[in-house]
């Protein structure tokens, strides 16, 4: 598996290409990427010095590992375009939300399919990726994919039935965290603090809070208790969150996002 190809040259493709080169998993000469515009290809060439092409079929011919880094609504068209060039030697990796392993298998007539749900913090090597495998994926292939996505963050292996939920929890939720962080920053600004200072305070605090959960293994409920003093400032804020049913709002957000991911696979 000494050559890898990317169909699609957007942000996630850029993040993965950067990660595999920085981790010495592949050298630029082993990587080929296709995109719809010359502008995107020029960026990829300048940034990574990889092989580029406007022809998706050329990527398949030149690579044994293919990462499908395109939007869900065009994935089926891409699959139909390349299907006659897919062999049993190819490993197909899809990062498109909502499109099942079976859908890809049925079009490409191969079962060497791995579906991955990464997220955009992969751009700063803090990504979270969930991986599920098709029927004919070997341990070697699975470990290869784990290595690729570990180069941009953390990975878990999961069953496909959970992928739509994971899409909501880690794939889409960076946007929800940004919303929350920005809302806190804007509240600080509204109360008299300059926005940039308020944003730094909010973002760094979010980062530190996440590290506390991951590194101490203390349950979030206990961490909340540790910060909250009876009759104190944090308790006053917690009461506002409870009164406004923040837990219900968050559940509805994740639930609707997961349902949308499921709907994408039906279209």
Structure description:
With 267 residues, this protein is α/β, with parallel strands linked by helices. The protein is 56% helix and 13% strand. The protein is built from eleven helices and eight strands. The longest helix has 28 residues, at 163-190. The protein is elongated. The model has no long low-confidence stretch (mean pLDDT 94).
Secondary-structure map with pairings?
Elements: E1 4-7, H1 11-22, E2 31-34, H2 38-48, E3 51-53, H3 56-62, E4 65-68, H4 72-82, E5 91-94, H5 101-108, E6 113-117, E7 127-133, H6 139-150, E8 153-157, H7 163-190, H8 195-216, H9 220-227, H10 233-243, H11 246-264
Parallel strand pairs: 1-2, 1-4, 2-3, 4-5, 5-6, 7-8
Antiparallel strand pairs: 6-7
Short description:
This protein is an alpha/beta fold. The protein has helices at residues 11-22, 38-48, 56-62, 72-82, 101-108, 139-150, 163-190, 195-216, 220-227, 233-243, 246-264; strands at 4-7, 31-34, 51-53, 65-68, 91-94, 113-117, 127-133, 153-157.
| Fold-level CATH name of the largest domain | Rossmann fold
Distance between the termini: 33 Å
Please outline the major beta sheet: 8 strands, mixed
Going by CATH, the homologous superfamily of the largest domain would be NAD(P)-binding Rossmann-like Domain
**Principal-axis shape:** elongated
Counting DSSP H or I runs of 4 or more residues, the number of helices is 11
Q: Which keywords apply here?
A:
267 residues; 13% strand; elongated; 2 domains; ProC C-terminal domain-like fold; 8 strands; alpha/beta; Rossmann fold; eight-stranded mixed sheet
